[in-house]
Amino acid sequence: MVILELIEKTSALAEGDTITIPLHSPDEADLAAAWCARTGNTLIAADHTSVTIRRGRPADPISDLPADRRPGARLWLYTNFDCNLACDYCCARSSPKAERRALGVDRVREIAKAAPAAGVREILLTGGEPFILPDLGQIVADCTAALPTTLLTNGMLFRGHRLQTLQAMPRDRLTLQISLDSATADLHDAHRGKGTWAKAVAGIHTALDEGFIVRVAATLTTDDRSEENELRSFLDSLGIPQRHQVVRPLARQGAADSGLELTVETLIPEVTITAEGVYWHPVGADNDEQLVTRDIFPLDSAIALVQEQFRAHRATADAAARTFPCA
Ligand code: SF4
Fold it and tell me: How many whole angstroms separate alpha carbon 256 and alpha carbon 113?
């Protein structure tokens, strides 16, 4: 059904024009993406309700992306890598036993100062678990002074001096992203450890009560769509708006032995900095194949290198599509 609509509506478009088509089921987004790849049209955006398609291939794969999704618009910083948990699918292989590989306050400050001029619009801080760092408050202060910032956490450490650290953080330029995988404890605890679901839910309540913007991110480890529906209903009941509910499938990276295969050829980059260097995407920050350069500075040059490699990958893919058409 959606394919017929795609053929009919895109054939009426001029080359380069775009159209948004409503979807009737989540599977239709996958069908539309496959159709675009086969026919040489460009999928610009897709969600559960609609797809936006451009007729023909993009002249520049970066300018065709939404501004906030262009490589470098969102800058990820891995603050440390060690974690109080050892989730069995962690893409960074974080755990209490993982060696701390800290970016450190001074390097984060230098990155944050350079970020606006390098085209960054948002900084995202991820751990392991950032709240085990003694200097997290300063790191967050430096990042929020430069740009809107999102801080990822498992939400389990909001007590004692760490609660005080949380309470001292700014509310206006900071979003807390807390991980919660399911509406009940079973699935979440199966991958993250017994008792972790209840502590994460308590953390969400604490963050909301403290007046923070809270986004909840779930990793789905099952194809059972009822799990996602139940989770979304649960998040609705907690007062998390739909736009702050992030549900993504498991990626086969790091400690995960199943899930989506994500490579530099298939992933739109989101520039990611660790203590080791600059990586293609946060899901690949423990994967040497996704290391772009060990030189973090100058930051604008590092971001430009990722963009250059992205254009090269897309050009290769387009050339292959012309040489080996699928239909
Ligand atoms: S998934 Fe998050 S909470 Fe779990 S081990 Fe990795 S960094 Fe820690």
Answer: 35
By most ligand atoms within 8 Å of CB, the mutation choice from 79, 80, 81, 85 for ligand 1 is 85
Which pLDDT tens digits describe the chain residue by residue (327 residues)?
788 888 888 888 888 788 889 888 878 888 888 888 888 888 888 887 888 888 887 678 898 899 999 999 999 999 999 999 999 999 999 999 999 999 999 999 999 999 999 999 999 999 999 999 999 999 999 999 999 999 999 999 999 999 999 999 999 999 999 999 999 999 999 999 999 999 999 999 999 999 999 999 999 988 888 999 999 999 999 999 999 999 999 999 999 998 888 899 999 999 999 999 999 999 999 999 999 999 999 999 999 999 999 999 988 887 666 555 555
Q: Round to the nearest angstrom and report the end-to-end CA distance of the chain.
A: 19
Rounded to an integer, what distance in angstroms lies between the CA atom of residue 167 and that of residue 206? 10
Joined together, the tokens standing for residue 86 give 């050892």
Say yes or no: CB of residue 180 within 6 Å of ligand 1. Answer: no
Alpha carbon of 83 to ligand 1 centroid (Å): 6
Distances from the Cα of 25 to the Cα of 11, 42, 124, 228, 234, angstroms: 23, 20, 31, 14, 22
Going from the Cα of 128 to the center of ligand 1, the distance in angstroms, rounded, reads: 6
How remote is the CA of residue 67 from the centroid of ligand 1, in Å?
29
What separation in Å is there between the alpha carbon of 98 and the centre of ligand 1? 11
The answer, yes or no, to whether any atom of ligand 1 lies below 6 A from the CB of 90, is yes
Q: How far apart are CA 295 and CA 89, in angstroms?
A: 29
C-beta 299 within 6 A of ligand 1: no
